Amino acid sequence: MAAPRTPRHRWIEEGLRALAAGGPDAVRIESLARALGVSKGGFYGYFEDRRALLDEMLDTWDRRSTEDVIDRVEHEGGDAMTRARRAAELTFSDELLPIDLAVRDWSRRDAAVADRLRRVDNFRMDYLRTLLSTVCADEEELEARSLIAFSVAIADHFIAADHGTRSRADVREVIRRRLFAK
């Protein structure tokens, strides 16, 4: 009896782990096969080449960090601030954040990845605008609040500053209240 084939999704998951840990150069067929405990021959039953795997990895990251997040947030419901907080928690979770940061870094060197990131960020910003529009009708103010919120969500992971007697969570809460103030 032949050994069962390693499922396609496991190659993609292992590729995403490698991407998060070491960027796109770490996504190597031989390394993935070794991590999965299989030969690299099974890879070619699913993917034409490494580029095809990278494209499917981006598709998976894209779907998980946009459609899947928003579907879950909308299913759980709540007011606009609750939904925005939940979307940020899911989007920048321990599972998705390392991939998101790796994609952002990768996009600096690959125009196709930069285009994908732009689409994903535009999708996220559109959703955030929708949420913030419930408390802010002025278009200029809405755009500014949306950019501030999105910038804080991303930059928070790069800033190592202390906040005196306040915790980072306390400061983020003040920002959320101000962004969602009428």
Q: Would you kindly provide a brief summary of this structure?
A:
This protein has 182 residues and is mainly alpha-helical. The chain has eight helices and no strands. The chain starts with 7 loop residues before the first helix and ends with a helix.
What does this structure look like?
This protein is mostly helical and 182 residues long. Helices cover 68% and strands 0% of the residues. The chain contains eight helices and no strands. The chain has helices spanning 8-22, 29-36, 50-76, 80-91, 97-107, 111-132, 139-155, 168-179. Helix 1 crosses helix 3 (50-76), helix 5 packs across helix 6 and helix 6 crosses helix 7 (139-155). It is elongated and about 60 Å long. The mean pLDDT is 93.
Low-confidence stretches: none
CATH topology: Tetracycline Repressor, domain 2
Q: What order do the helices and strands follow?
A: HHHHHHHH
Distance between the termini: 67 Å
Main sheet overview: none
Task: Tell me the name of the CATH class.
Answer: Mainly Alpha
Q: Structural class, judged by helices and strands?
A: mainly alpha
Rg, Cα atoms, Å? 19 Å
- CATH H-level superfamily title: Tetracycline Repressor, domain 2
List the helices and strands and how they pair.
Elements: H1 8-22, H2 29-36, H3 50-76, H4 80-91, H5 97-107, H6 111-132, H7 139-155, H8 168-179
Helix pairs in contact: 1-2, 1-3, 1-5, 3-4, 3-6, 5-6, 6-7, 7-8
